Amino acid sequence: MSREGISLIGEAMDGNTSDKVWNRRIIEELVSKLASDLGGLIYVADSAVYKCKDYTAEIDGRPYRLIVVHSSKLDKGKASKLERDLFKQKAELDEKIAELGAVEFACEPDAQAAPNRLKQECFGSFYDVSGRVEAEEVVLKRARRGRPGK
To answer: Structural domain tally of the chain?
Structure first.
């Protein structure tokens, strides 16, 4: 407790201890011990670089002060993961397109349906899937020369 009568809680931890894990544990501990007096509680954490937005809301007829915390460090991690996911998604899509391009269809309706099936399979993908069918006539060669057998 400080000279002003303010309760202070702190703990010396190993440098490898995760701030997220410790913060979650200490908040759960505070909630269980101070459940009746959470209205006057202010929790300050030194974790990453945060931006905060303060709101007030009424839940079940009781006023609450809500603080939304936004981590710019977390944004960088999420952006990096998104880039990796998009790169992986594009590679998988390129592979599927190459496989589809190697298929020879017996008729035009089957060929027209194939891009639509791929589009349905990749629904929700970041990339827009579309395709066109080009007819190509293939002349089949006989297995051997001469007249066919009887």
So the answer is: 1
User: What is the full DSSP assignment across 5-74?
Assistant: S---------TTS-HHHHHHHHHHHHHHHSGGGGGG------SS-EEEEEEEEEETTEEEEEEEEEEHHH
The verdict on residue 29 lying in a domain is: yes
Cβ atoms within 10 A of the Cβ of 45, count? Answer: 13
Two structure tokens written together for 47: 């974790």
Question: Does residue 113 register a pLDDT over 60?
Answer: yes
CA dihedral 4, 11, 77, 43 (to 10 degrees): -30
Give the chain's mean pLDDT: 77
pLDDT tens-digit map of 79-93 = 888 889 888 988 998
Q: Which domain holds residue 26?
A: 1-47
Tokens coding 26: 């200490």
Q: Tell me what pLDDT residue 49 has.
A: 47
Over the range 1-38, which residues count as b (16 or more CB within 10 Å of their CB) and which as e? eeeeeeeeeeeeeeeeeeeeeeeeeeeeeeeeeeeeee
For residue 106, give the amino acid letter.
A
The answer to whether residues 109 and 87 touch, using CB atoms and an 8 Å cutoff, is no
